[in-house]
Amino acid sequence: MQPVYLSHFIDSDTPVYGGARGEIVIEPIRSIEKGDTSNNLHFTFPAHIGTHIDFPYHFSNEGKKSNDYPPSFWIFHKIGFLNCTIEEVESNLDTLAADIEILILKTGFGANRHKEIYWSGQPVIPAKFATLFKNKFPKLRVFGFDLISLTSKLDRAEGKSAHINFLINNDILVLVS
Question: What confidence score (pLDDT) does residue 49 get?
Answer without folding.
Answer: 73
